[in-house]
Write a structure and sequence with these properties.
11 strands; 14% strand; alpha/beta; 7-stranded parallel beta sheet; globular
């Protein structure tokens, strides 16, 4: 399934992302769910479309990312993997032309286990990457933020526009993640204002798909884990809350489009505004598909 999605993304976007050919792309968090797709797409294009390959640098400390998501790429001459915590200065990596900064501890399973590390990577790691982008004069930097910067919007703010300022608790169980992501966005707009750093910020909403960890503890992986391991589905609420979910290949398409765009300093929601469903109904569908 991942191979099919990668091939479809590459076929559709090759003319758009052709500027990456013959340059260097740094991806932080490359062992993660979303960022591993960027590497797969570029590797596919290097093999199928480009005479001058894009050199890929993948940085991940593998605290929540999975080595197996990039294991099939490690012997490639066009990829260098660096196991490293991006909250610390990077080792020498050479010239960088494009930067996708997705390193984070995004899963509730892990950011509740590692709250201080979550703050460090979201704030310190983003500062390190912005410094790198500034010093190297990159052509573009894409920062993967989160829809969690909006907190718990009032019903009148759903769907939530980018200019909504958020209703976020600074003391709640998600605060280490939500608030550090908000500060990271402030760092991005500050670097853009002071130095003209060509950074774009994306706020993914409920992205799902193959390659996502079943122990992630977000709703779709939770339901899928119950189905795969034949466990009873347990809801931690009355199930009436509704969500719309964005398939991973659609999210990756949008993010690659933004990477090569001229929307410097902009912030963009990435999600699906169709097919809203209650958590209870979603659980019923999973149960029906999985069978008794």
């Amino acid at each position: 399934m991942i191979r099919e999605d990668v091939a479809a993304i590459a076929a559709e976007l090759e003319p758009l992302v052709r500027p990456l050919a013959g340059t260097t792309l740094l991806v932080t968090g490359g062992g993660g769910f979303l960022c591993s797709y960027f590497l797969d797409v570029v590797a596919y294009l290097n093999d199928q479309a480009w005479q001058g390959p894009c050199r890929m640098l993948c940085v991940d400390n593998l605290k929540s990312g999975l080595a197996r998501r990039v294991a099939h790429l490690l012997d490639r001459p066009d990829l260098r993997f660096v196991q490293h915590d991006v909250s610390q200065p990077l080792p020498e990596v050479g010239r960088v032309d494009w930067l996708i900064h997705g390193a984070s501890i995004a899963s509730p399973t892990f950011y509740r286990r590692y709250p201080l590390e979550t703050i460090d990577v979201n704030v310190g790691g983003t500062r390190q990457m912005l410094e790198l982008a500034h010093s190297q004069g990159v052509r573009s930097m894409l920062y993967l933020s989160t829809s969690e910067v909006y907190g718990d919007p009032e019903p009148g703010w759903i769907p939530t526009p980018e200019h909504y300022r958020g209703a976020v608790s600074c003391t709640g169980p998600r605060a280490c993640y939500d608030e550090s992501k908000r500060l990271a966005e402030t760092l991005c707009v500050t670097y853009h204002a002071l130095y003209g750093t060509p950074v774009k910020m994306v706020r993914p909403f409920n992205v799902y798909g193959p390659g996502q960890r079943l122990d992630d503890r977000r709703v779709i992986p939770d339901l899928m884990s119950s189905a795969v391991y034949r466990r009873p589905i347990v809801l931690h609420s009355d199930g009436r809350a509704t969500r719309s979910f964005c398939y991973v290949s659609d999210a990756v398409r949008a993010m690659l489009y933004l990477l090569v765009s001229e929307a410097d300093g902009g912030v963009f929601n990435v999600g699906n505004d169709q097919g809203e469903i209650s958590i209870a109904d979603l659980a019923r569908r999973v149960r029906e598909i999985a069978g008794p």
